[in-house]
Design a protein that fits this description.
Length: 179
């Protein structure tokens, strides 16, 4: 972040702030995570980047607010952010954002213990994300499908790719598989 700040690179600074927010969210420090996500939007709004980038960052902020709410079991806020994000994504139809919308839908369903719905949504999310694989395993376990849950947990635990989310789920996925 300091290097980007020294270069005045608002786009990189915003991305770094989002990553910091992710780490804080995963650590259960949701208020601090939200502050980092909000700061990321503030920084990108001042950056010398196309308006499309600023709009995408604002849409991502809705997604992040929804994830924080879902993790915190604030179902009403999670659903409100999901509805808002879904409207925004529908207008643009960017594949990455559509997958994120399904991720958030799955997280809300999981928080509500609607396991079958969560599985369906996670199946439409990014299958190259170990976090999605782990969340799918969690939903399958909740739905009583232990065999498929173990398969997805194993995929998450043995993920072989470059993805920050692997660090967040590897231990839990290994624990779920008993390894």
């Amino acid at each position: 972040y300091a290097l980007a700040e020294a270069d005045g690179d608002g786009a990189v600074m915003s991305g770094d702030l989002t990553q910091m927010g992710d780490v804080l969210r995963e650590a259960g420090r949701t208020k601090e995570a939200l502050a980092k996500y909000e700061e990321a939007v503030t920084v990108i709004n001042k950056a010398k980047v196309p308006d499309e980038v600023k709009e995408a960052t604002r849409r991502t902020h809705l997604f992040e607010e929804g994830r924080v709410a879902a993790v915190g079991k604030d179902i009403a806020t999670a659903k409100a952010k999901l509805a808002e994000y879904t409207r925004e994504v529908a207008a643009k139809q960017r594949p990455f954002e559509v997958r994120q919308q399904h991720e958030l839908s799955g997280m809300v369903a999981l928080a509500e213990k609607q396991y079958a719905d969560a599985v369906k949504e996670f199946q439409l999310a990014n299958q190259q994300d170990p976090r999605i694989l782990y969340l799918t395993a969690t939903a399958l376990k909740g739905a009583g499908d232990s065999q498929r849950a173990a398969e997805y947990a194993s995929k998450a635990a043995k993920f072989n790719g470059l993805n920050f989310n692997y660090a967040y789920v590897r231990s839990a996925a290994r624990k779920m598989t008993g390894t």
